[in-house]
Amino acid sequence: MYRLVSRLTLSSRILFGVLLCGVLLSGCGATSAPPVPVMINSEIFSPLSVNARKLTIVENWQMPVTAPYVGHRQTPYPSNLVSSWASTVLVPAGGSGELILDISRAAVTQEKLVREDSLTKTLTDEQDVRVRVELEAQLMWLQPVGDAQARITLSAVHSATVAESATANDVQAAINDSLQAALAALDMQARTELAKVDNIVLQ
Question: Which CATH code fits 40-114+123-194?
Fold first, then answer.
């Protein structure tokens, strides 16, 4: 009787070990989803012919690399996206003058949300992370012909929340969408403000 019990126990241990190895091997063989590529496209914005001989882009924004800032992990950098937008949209078409875009902020932050400590909330898929994009710039126009000049302040903010069940790719997708939305808002504001300035946009 003792030998029978010992054999059964030994067989059970062997079976458990085989099952455990199978689970571990299947876990190692599983591949995670590839990271979401950054699909921010400044080329979707139609160009404007500006009454200036050249466009100068200045980046006065120093990008923090500590939490909650995550802009330094984005490719391309948020400020580079603004520069690309300006190069695409603000096309110099005049014989004189200068248009200067001074980027003062191009930030992306990612923060954990404060959650309610209750059993009901524990059983639900709450919003867990907020991503936020802030873009700020000064647009200055200096036209010696006619002694014309203008200064326009541009500012765009967009944020989104991501549920606690979200993957790293879901968070990156939310950042991408927020970057694109903020850039679109900046573009719309620039067009609205430029339309108020006489002779800056050439027909």
Answer: 3.30.160
